[in-house]
């Protein structure tokens, strides 16, 4: 017999009754039923009930074991009494009577329990991550992650892609976040960087003649943490293709992402990729207040400025006299009660706004009545025009925000999400995808008036060089994101592969030719030797798994994540270097004041 096991803790069934077996695993829990000891023995694959009574030659040893001890047992497989069968377990028809036991690893008093559903502070969970990972939910999440990555790989190979590995130590390259720098021992005073993404290398692969590339790529960014973003590293399904249009990229990656959600979505509805809408960035901001809209929520915001211009509601009327301002309405079907409207008004105040104006419509027996402060100020004719524009009726409400769109769009988007959730309008049993397209390449700083890149500077401008001769704020890029349930899952672009267009694009944003060649010399030089048109995208593996696992926090689908302060409490990182290490790298640490 094998030194540790003849079967896993998920293998035994009624067909094994009468066999002598050997199992190894962790003591999930111990129960004492009047002198008979029952142990749920757990390994990576499942759980088997083992038991021991005073007739066993090792009863005294079994009495000593505690939760999370790692043990090996030998015993006889017995059928459970019919009334004691556990249909929830694959091994629920049998139990193993212990004849021999070996303690492989005892455990101290546990800082967190593996058995049960107790909640523990995140700091405790991360400090003792190896215990946290033993919990059933975490085992399930990590197996899901592994299976999702395997599925992605297979789907990409099936589409004719090859997987290539790009460097982990490279040059610093601004990608919108801070680099992690690595000091060079051989070149004192100089630094490498961990790649924020394989962006430049995958484009260089296209110049090198590799037609289709993909990689499950680690990316490193020194970012402020959020629930849906790691502060240090993350993984993405990275891909690039030559001789493609934007639609070619959509047609390639959509079935891969859609197929993964179909395979692992647990029966939740996934629209066919052909039905995923393409929404312009401008429309997404207007209708949803976000470039990653949650389309499970049917609410669409509308501009209603004409109904407030010159009206009796002075706040909005005066606001509309300023350039670039507008009033938007958030419809709230079934939200027509003062209690709900007051609650949403309080939400707006928590978001830093004075409040949200509202109107709600109620049945007065002899007809419909518009209620709320706004209705009284603008009068019945304007109120009725708003109701008809929004398609609302008795029992419905609408909320209003005004100003320059960029000042209130994000709050309006969050309010839309809250309204959809609270009124039960958001379909929780669905994954709703949408491609967001036509991103603007440039934006103007309101204070300085200077033009800078709003989004990816490497995107090909729509219209090419000619488009860059017009108003920069009107220039759109062949850039796109895939949104799902309020998260950005994929981001990509058709790349700017023409040096003359790249230099002009950077010149508009205030970057001279010399600076572009200094920052991106490797790529710019390569583009002068017959670069093909190319494009691609990257899909966030962590976020995809987070959605599939129905989790709210990325750290619940990552094996060993950092905490909110970018610290590894388990391994003690970041740590102070030794004097010898600093000397070898020609570095000196200046103490903080």
Structural class: alpha+beta
Q: What is the beta-strand fraction?
A: 15-25%
CATH level-four homologous superfamily name of one domain:
GAD-like domain
For the largest beta sheet, what order do the strands appear in spatially? 6-9-10-24-23-22-19-12
Choose one word for the global shape.
Answer: globular
**Distance linking N and C termini:** 65 Å
What is the CATH C level class of one domain, in words? Alpha Beta
Number of DSSP helical runs: 16
What's the short version?
This protein is α+β, with helices and mostly antiparallel strands and 593 residues long. It has 16 helices and 24 strands. The protein has an eight-stranded mixed beta sheet, sandwiched between helices.
Task: Characterise the protein shown here.
Among the domains are: 92 residues, Nucleic acid-binding proteins (OB fold (Dihydrolipoamide Acetyltransferase, E2P), Beta Barrel), CATH 2.40.50.140; 130 residues, Gyrase A, domain 2 (2-Layer Sandwich), CATH 3.30.1360. Helix content is 29%, strand content 24%. The protein has an eight-stranded mixed beta sheet, with helices on both faces. The chain has a five-stranded mixed β-barrel with strand order 1-2-3-5-4. A five-stranded antiparallel beta sheet has the order 13-14-17-15-16, sandwiched between helices. α4 packs antiparallel against α6. The chain is globular and about 90 Å long. It starts with 19 loop residues before the first strand and ends in a 9-residue tail after the last helix. The mean pLDDT is 94. It comes from Pseudooceanicola nitratireducens. One of its GO terms (biological process) is aspartyl-tRNA aminoacylation. One of its GO terms (cellular component) is cytoplasm. Keywords: Aminoacyl-tRNA synthetase, ATP-binding, Cytoplasm, Ligase, Nucleotide-binding, Protein biosynthesis.
